[in-house]
Amino acid sequence: MKPNFFIAPSILSANFACLGNEIASVIEGGADWIHFDVMDNHYVPNLTFGPMVCQAVKPYASVPIDVHLMVEPVDEMISTFAAAGANIITFHPEASRHIDRSLSLIKATGCEAGLAFNPATPIHVLQEVIDKLDVVLLMSVNPGFGGQSFISSTLKKISKVRAIINEYARENGRFIRLEVDGGIKTDNIAQIAEAGADTFVAGSAIFGHKDYAKQIAALRAQLVSIR
Ligand code: DX5
Ligand code: ZN
User: Fold this and answer.
1) Does some domain include residue 46?
2) Residues with CB under 6 A from ligand 1
3) How far is ligand 1, taken at its centre, from the CA of residue 183, in Å?
4) Which of 33, 74, 90, 172 is 20–30 Å from 67 (CA)?
């Protein structure tokens, strides 16, 4: 048994000139989370938006805001994004000197906590901090840009993490979400779900088209026969 499937549109591919309306319409179109890609042009070679933008769009977000911190250092950003309305905060383990402390900082704000693993980052740290995790975010592209192609070696990693999460759920009665991020389209989401993902970030697959509801429905349609 896995948690039900969530679609988390990444606003990195939205129209930044009217972000609030974009968020409202993609939620109307069926989004479960809003994926908020924070980039600092230090940890990743791109620069997006900060806590003030999160605060500004919060009134439009009637679903959880899933903040993906692609920043280094991490800790100062945790309390600011929590105060700005984040509901889930994930960061990259390479970007924190003290991963357990950063996760505790997130939990102390009341937000859900997650680790984001780049395609080449091994997942062994999971075993040490799994009790603090609500989400494991597996990057299926190298972070920094939308519209990239899905890295198929991620499928094996998804299955490995699914096995770890299922064993943890059996032993502790608590499910951790397995979120996959990057290059997700209607023609690969079923395979990604089969491998064990339950939460799907999609930026260009949704915001690259006019009708967000139609795009989200098309992604969901691929998941109907998968459990
Ligand atoms: C990349 C971001 C992803 C990206 C996904 O660094 O973390 O969330 O926006 O965009 P698509 O779905 O277009 O690959
Ligand atoms: Zn992301």
Assistant:
1) yes
2) 10, 12-13, 35, 37, 68, 70, 141, 143-144, 146-148, 181-184, 201-205
3) 7
4) 172
Which domain does 148 fall in, by range?
Answer: 6-221
**How do the pLDDT tens digits run along the chain, 227 residues long?**
567 999 999 999 999 999 999 999 999 999 999 999 999 999 999 999 999 999 999 999 999 999 999 999 999 999 999 999 999 999 999 999 999 999 999 999 999 999 999 999 999 999 999 999 999 999 999 999 999 999 999 999 999 999 999 999 999 999 999 999 999 999 999 999 999 999 999 999 999 999 999 999 999 999 998 87
Q: Which residues contact 152 (CB under 8 A, 6 or more apart)?
A: none
CATH number at residue 112: 3.20.20.70
